[in-house]
Specification:
Elements (H helix, E strand, L loop, with lengths): L2 E5 L2 E3 L5 E8 L8 E6 L6 E6 L5 E3 L7 E6 L4 E6 L8 E7 L2 E2 L3 E5 L1
Protein backbone atom coordinates (compact mmCIF):
# COMPACT_ATOMS: atom_id res chain seq x y z
CA UNK A 1 0.00 0.00 0.00
CA UNK A 2 1.03 3.54 -0.67
CA UNK A 3 1.39 5.62 2.47
CA UNK A 4 2.04 9.32 2.88
CA UNK A 5 2.96 10.88 6.20
CA UNK A 6 3.06 14.65 6.63
CA UNK A 7 4.97 16.39 9.38
CA UNK A 8 6.32 19.79 10.30
CA UNK A 9 3.15 21.65 11.08
CA UNK A 10 2.75 23.84 14.13
CA UNK A 11 1.77 27.24 15.45
CA UNK A 12 3.66 30.33 14.36
CA UNK A 13 3.17 34.07 14.38
CA UNK A 14 2.43 35.95 11.21
CA UNK A 15 5.59 36.47 9.21
CA UNK A 16 7.10 33.23 10.44
CA UNK A 17 8.14 30.12 8.54
CA UNK A 18 7.49 26.42 8.62
CA UNK A 19 8.77 23.53 6.56
CA UNK A 20 6.41 20.65 5.91
CA UNK A 21 7.57 17.20 4.90
CA UNK A 22 5.69 14.39 3.20
CA UNK A 23 7.35 11.00 3.42
CA UNK A 24 6.06 8.37 1.02
CA UNK A 25 6.34 4.61 1.02
CA UNK A 26 4.99 1.78 -1.07
CA UNK A 27 5.49 3.53 -4.38
CA UNK A 28 8.25 4.95 -6.52
CA UNK A 29 7.51 8.57 -5.88
CA UNK A 30 10.14 9.79 -8.32
CA UNK A 31 8.03 9.11 -11.41
CA UNK A 32 4.92 10.93 -10.25
CA UNK A 33 3.64 14.42 -9.72
CA UNK A 34 3.16 15.28 -6.06
CA UNK A 35 0.73 17.84 -4.71
CA UNK A 36 0.17 19.90 -1.60
CA UNK A 37 -3.34 20.87 -0.58
CA UNK A 38 -4.91 22.58 2.40
CA UNK A 39 -8.31 22.81 4.01
CA UNK A 40 -9.36 25.49 6.43
CA UNK A 41 -12.34 25.00 8.76
CA UNK A 42 -15.59 25.48 6.87
CA UNK A 43 -13.85 25.70 3.53
CA UNK A 44 -13.20 23.33 0.67
CA UNK A 45 -9.86 21.70 0.16
CA UNK A 46 -7.72 23.74 -2.22
CA UNK A 47 -4.55 23.12 -4.15
CA UNK A 48 -1.43 24.86 -2.89
CA UNK A 49 1.47 23.55 -4.97
CA UNK A 50 2.51 20.75 -7.26
CA UNK A 51 5.86 19.37 -8.30
CA UNK A 52 6.28 17.15 -11.34
CA UNK A 53 8.73 14.29 -11.68
CA UNK A 54 11.12 16.60 -13.53
CA UNK A 55 10.98 19.19 -10.75
CA UNK A 56 8.63 21.60 -12.49
CA UNK A 57 6.56 23.43 -9.88
CA UNK A 58 3.29 25.32 -9.86
CA UNK A 59 1.66 27.36 -7.11
CA UNK A 60 -1.67 28.83 -6.19
CA UNK A 61 -1.70 32.60 -6.58
CA UNK A 62 -2.30 32.99 -2.85
CA UNK A 63 1.07 31.42 -1.97
CA UNK A 64 3.17 32.33 -4.98
CA UNK A 65 6.43 33.96 -3.90
CA UNK A 66 6.07 32.74 -0.31
CA UNK A 67 5.91 28.95 -0.58
CA UNK A 68 8.39 26.63 -2.29
CA UNK A 69 7.98 22.94 -2.90
CA UNK A 70 10.84 20.55 -3.56
CA UNK A 71 11.44 16.83 -3.68
CA UNK A 72 14.14 14.40 -2.68
CA UNK A 73 13.53 11.29 -4.75
CA UNK A 74 16.31 9.40 -3.01
CA UNK A 75 14.42 9.75 0.28
CA UNK A 76 10.93 9.60 -1.27
CA UNK A 77 10.11 12.86 0.45
CA UNK A 78 8.47 16.06 -0.71
CA UNK A 79 8.83 19.37 1.11
CA UNK A 80 6.86 22.58 1.36
CA UNK A 81 8.82 25.56 2.63
CA UNK A 82 6.40 28.22 3.81
CA UNK A 83 7.70 31.73 4.47
CA UNK A 84 5.98 35.01 5.35
CA UNK A 85 3.06 33.08 6.75
CA UNK A 86 -0.27 34.84 7.14
CA UNK A 87 -3.27 34.05 9.35
CA UNK A 88 -5.17 33.05 6.23
CA UNK A 89 -2.65 30.24 5.70
CA UNK A 90 -4.11 28.51 8.76
CA UNK A 91 -5.35 25.10 7.63
CA UNK A 92 -4.74 21.39 7.64
CA UNK A 93 -2.12 20.66 5.00
CA UNK A 94 -2.12 17.43 3.01
CA UNK A 95 0.12 15.87 0.41
CA UNK A 96 -1.16 13.75 -2.43
CA UNK A 97 0.32 11.08 -4.68
CA UNK A 98 -2.07 9.89 -7.37
CA UNK A 99 -5.24 8.98 -5.45
CA UNK A 100 -3.51 8.67 -2.10
CA UNK A 101 -3.58 11.25 0.67
CA UNK A 102 -1.71 11.70 3.90
CA UNK A 103 -3.41 12.30 7.24
CA UNK A 104 -2.52 15.98 7.22
CA UNK A 105 -0.54 18.29 9.45
CA UNK A 106 -2.04 21.37 11.10
CA UNK A 107 -0.63 24.82 10.45
CA UNK A 108 -1.85 27.68 12.63
CA UNK A 109 -0.74 31.26 12.05
CA UNK A 110 -1.70 33.93 14.56
Amino acid sequence: DVQLVESGGGSVQAGGSLRLSCATSGSTMSTYCMGWYRQAPGKEREGVATIDSDGTTAYADSVKGRFTTSRDNADDTVYLQMNSLKPEDTAMYYCRLLGYWGQGTQVTVS
